[in-house]
Specification:
It is a single chain. The protein is an alpha/beta fold. The chain has 16 helices and six strands. The protein has two domains: about 150 residues, no CATH class; about 190 residues, P-loop containing nucleotide triphosphate hydrolases (Rossmann fold), CATH 3.40.50. Helices cover about 55% and strands about 10% of the residues. The chain has a six-stranded mixed sheet, with helices on both faces. Helix 2 runs antiparallel to helix 10 and helix 4 packs across helix 5. It is globular. One of its GO terms (molecular function) is hydrolase activity.
């Protein structure tokens, strides 16, 4: 996650023994990484499942106040951004259905403001239409990337299972994928990439392949934003997030160690506690273990929130972290309390052991 950060200026500052400048550069780099925007345009014809995809990707239930409205008829009439509930710089834009009377294909991109999007996802619940192809070609001509998503494949699988004596799910999916590709090739789309998804079972089918493709083709500085916002639906994604967080520990550690060296009574305790709380909160949010994420999970699954929080085993669990108040933890007793468990002591050990110049050179 931190591979794209240019650390040249940091290394130069450290080599010149200017640790204050190095800390300033590190903070700016971390802030830049945290605030990198990613804007994805979700488009397709009416009724293709655009709004459902927007909700599913963000982990928002259809009945949630933050949900994009869904229905059997076209519910998107204006360009609207839906922000990720945990990452405000990550936005999925629900675009009106292409090919409607109000939005003809030849004026569509101009109407939706195509220049704001990093890439487009074109969704269809059946075969990709002439309008979809026209849009894809226009996107390509304007130097943007697009990806075809064939939605509602769960419906296709159910229909095939009811109608076929020797039903084979993988064979059915392969036929759908191949049929979509042939149709796009026939319309002049070169090497089309088609991903089969179910908005109600996003972890199944081609979602992981879509993520891998986006991760590979996005600019390096945008991959961080994508990974942060990805739903935690597999061990692979969780492991990638874990490694991404680990890659930044040395930077936070160095900043913490430098602040702790300030010879002002109590100041080092306040700064260390605030930094640790902030970093751990990032981890909780990234793994959807923060309060709002757990509440959304409780609402969507019907499992009481107290039952979800009761299975948290980390010494840095939900209530423990939420009860830390960096503004009041200024005394020696507060510092001892923070170090009172093995888990918290380990975090301090990481901060001090990694917070050295050698770890950054």
């Amino acid at each position: 996650m931190a591979d794209f950060l240019d650390t040249t200026e940091i290394k130069e500052a450290l080599q010149n023994n200017n640790q204050a400048l190095a800390v300033d550069k590190i903070k700016k780099l971390l802030e830049k990484a945290a605030n990198t925007p990613l804007n994805i345009g979700i488009t397709g014809e009416s009724g293709s499942g655009k709004s459902s995809f927007v909700n599913a990707f963000r982990g928002v239930d259809h009945q949630d106040d933050q949900a994009a409205p869904t229905g059997v008829v076209e519910t998107t009439t204006e360009v609207k951004a839906y922000t990720h509930p945990s990452y405000p710089n990550f936005k999925l834009w629900d675009l009106p259905g292409i090919g409607t009377t109000r939005f003809p294909a030849d004026q569509y991109l101009k109407h939706v403001g195509f220049e704001r999007f990093d890439f487009f996802i074109i969704i269809s619940a059946t075969r990709f239409s002439e309008n979809d192809v026209k849009l894809a070609k226009e996107i390509l001509n304007m130097g943007k990337k697009f990806y075809f998503v064939r939605s509602k494949v769960d419906n296709d699988l159910q229909n095939a299972q009811r109608s076929q004596r020797n039903f084979d799910a993988e064979q059915t999916l392969a036929l759908i994928r191949e049929n979509c590709k042939k149709g796009l090739l026939k319309e002049g789309v070169q090497a089309p990439q088609v991903f089969l998804l179910s908005n109600f079972e996003l972890r199944h089918h081609d979602f992981h392949r879509l993520h891998a493709t986006l991760e590979r083709e996005l600019p390096e500085h945008k991959r961080d934003a994508l990974l942060s916002a990805m739903p935690n639906m597999s061990l692979e994604i969780i492991e990638k997030k874990k490694e991404a967080f680990k890659s930044k520990i040395r930077y936070y550690a160095f900043v913490s160690a430098e602040f702790a060296a300030v010879p002002l009574p109590g100041l080092s305790v306040v700064v260390d506690v605030a930094l640790i709380v902030g970093v751990v909160q990032q981890y909780k949010t990234g793994f959807a273990l923060d309060g709002p994420s757990l509440q959304r999970l409780a609402d969507s699954t019907g499992v009481p929130l107290k039952d979800l929080t009761s299975v948290l085993r980390s010494p840095l669990s939900l209530n423990t972290i939420n009860n830390i108040n960096p503004k009041t933890s200024t005394s020696v007793s507060s510092c001892c309390w923070l170090n009172g468990s093995r888990g918290r002591l380990e975090i301090y050990s990481i901060i001090w052991n990694l917070g050295s110049i050698d770890s950054l050179l």
